Amino acid sequence: MLQVDVFDTPEVLAASAGELFIELAHRTIKDGKNFNALLCGGNTPRAVYQWLAEHGDLLDWRRVRLFFGDERCVPPEHSDSNYRMVRESMLDALDGLGETTYRIAGELPPEEAARRYEAILRSLFEGTPQFDLVLLGLGADAHTASLFPGTRAIHEEEAWVVANLIESLDAWRITVTPPLLNNARMIAFLVSGEGKAEAVKRVLKGERLINLYPAQIVQPTWGDVRWMLDRGAARLLSDT
Fold first, then answer.
1. 108: closest CA among 78, 134, 74?
2. What angle do CA 140, 155, 120 make, to 5 degrees?
3. Does the pLDDT of residue 100 top 90, yes or no?
4. For the chain, what is the mean pLDDT?
5. Where are the alpha helices (DSSP H) in 58-196?
6. Is the dihedral of CA 232, 14, 7, 214 positive or negative?
7. How far apart are CA 90 and CA 97, in angstroms?
8. How do strand 171-176 and strand 70-72 relate by DSSP bridges?
9. pTM of the model
10. Alpha helices (H) along 125-191
C-alpha cells in the first residue's frame, strides 16, 4: 500500500517519523521479536534521530537492531560518514540502553566493504533480510540510498549490498540494493524542502524511468510505502 502524508513543517515531519519508528518497534517487540531498522543519511533523517534520542525512554532498545542502507567510502569518524551522523545525533544519547548497531565499514576498499556487510546480513537473517522499517531519503536527482541515476546498482537482482561507482560525484558508495529494499515490511521516505519537490513529483507522478528516477525502483513485494513530506517537498503534487 502506498500512502502519502504531508506535514506543515520539517519538525512535525521528524516527530511523526519518530513516532512511526516507536509504534512499529513496540508492535514487533510485543510479538517477541527484535525490531530491525535500516537507517539512511541526510538532514531530514538527522532530525528524526534527534527526536528518537530525546524520547529514548519510550522504547526497549535492547530489542532494537540498527543497520545502514548506504555509506560513503570514508572512515567512521569522517565528517561525511553516515554512521558518524547517526552516532552524533542519536547513538551517543542512547549509550547504555542496549541497542545493537551494524555499521558499513566505509574505510575498507568498496568491494570488500560491500562483501563484508552482506556477510553480516547473511549471518543474522535467514533468506533475504526482512526489515521491519526502512528509512529512505530522496535526492534532488531522485536517487535514494546510493542508487544514483544511471548507475549499475539500480538493476542489481541478486546481491543485497554492492559497491556503486557514482561517476557524477567521482566517488564510490556502498549501498543496499532493490531486492533487499523491496522485501521490507515498511518503507518510509522522509523528504523536506522545496528543492526536492520536482524529484518527488517525478517519482510519484511521472513516467516510470528508473534509470532517471531510481527511487521508482522501490516497490515492496508485499510491504507498505509511506511518503512523509513537508509542504515544500509536496508543493508540486497538486499540479498533476
1. 74
2. 95
3. yes
4. 96
5. 82-86, 92-94, 110-124, 178-181
6. positive
7. 12
8. antiparallel
9. 0.97
10. 178-181
